[in-house]
Design a protein that fits this description.
With 113 residues, this protein is an all-alpha fold. It has helices spanning 11-20, 23-43, 46-66, 71-89, 98-112. It has one domain. It is globular, with a radius of gyration of 14 Å. 24% of the residues are buried.
Length: 113
């Protein structure tokens, strides 16, 4: 039996479909959720921010899982997740500029569309 914390936000992606996507599309999809979280945070909408952030984090985790054999991709994903989480939930220790973070991911989002 699944507990609420073990439920997948993206159940069809978690079953292996995600691993079949090109890396750029994985990052683009993560970027879409990051963009939603940043906009919601700026508007002060904590519920939407938390929902988008949870989806982004789950997509980061799926990408980390399926890119274990590529050190460069793994480093990029882990660093991106760390920076995103620090900006959304932490004290922004890395002094992340949300406009620059969003611009980075936007280049991949255009590939998704």
């Amino acid at each position: 039996m699944q507990t609420p914390s073990s439920k997948f936000i993206h159940p069809t992606l978690a079953t292996g479909r995600w691993a079949k996507l090109p890396f750029s599309l994985q990052i683009g999809n993560i970027g879409s959720e990051i963009s939603r979280a940043i906009r919601s945070k700026a508007k002060g909408n904590a519920e939407r921010m938390n929902n988008a952030a949870a989806r982004a984090i789950k997509l980061f985790e799926l990408s980390i899982d399926c890119n274990q054999n590529d050190p460069a991709k793994l480093k990029e994903l882990c660093r991106g997740k760390e920076e995103f989480c620090d900006y959304i939930y932490g004290n922004n220790t890395f002094n992340t500029d949300p406009t620059k973070m969003q611009a980075y991911y936007d280049q991949f989002v255009s590939l998704v569309r």
